[in-house]
Amino acid sequence: MASIPEKIFTQASEVDIDHIVPLAHAHRHGADSWTKKQRRAFANDFDNLVVVSDKTNHAKSDKALHEWLPPRKAYWCEYGKRWKHIKHKYQLISTQQEQAALNSLAKTCR
User: Fold this and answer.
1) Which residue stretches, if any, does this entry annotate as coiled coil (predicted)?
2) Residue 96 sits in which domain range?
3) What is the largest CA-CA distance in the chain?
4) 18 and 52 in contact (C-beta within 8 Å)?
5) Global pTM?
6) How far apart, in Å, are the Cα atoms of 13 and each of 52, 53, 106?
7) For labelling alongside 76, which of 39, 48, 52, 97 has CA 20 to 30 A away?
8) How far apart are CA 104 and CA 87, in angstroms?
9) Domains of the chain: total
10) d(C-alpha 88, C-alpha 5), whole Å
11) Mind listing the pLDDT tens digit for each residue in 52-103?
């Protein structure tokens, strides 16, 4: 599990564990047909978990890649790579908007 580099946290109450690809987003893009076991595996997959500030987690909510990026631009490339990896790993549907956002990020991440 990684963290979106924002700052150094000194209190557990300052942080949340967030999903790179949000649970609700996954549900809308293919996970609605999964078994309970598959949903649990997705929800607990370290590849999809990240430590963030509670403020960042609330700002992101269940937004997709084209709707939200981490506050620190330096993490955008890593975030995009992880988003793409999770969507592929779980065979979740990607929208044209997501693909456009991934393509745009890829151009800046070279």
Assistant:
1) none
2) 2-108
3) 40
4) yes
5) 0.89
6) 11, 9, 34
7) 39
8) 17
9) 1
10) 24
11) 988 899 999 999 999 999 998 989 999 999 999 999 999 999 999 999 999 9
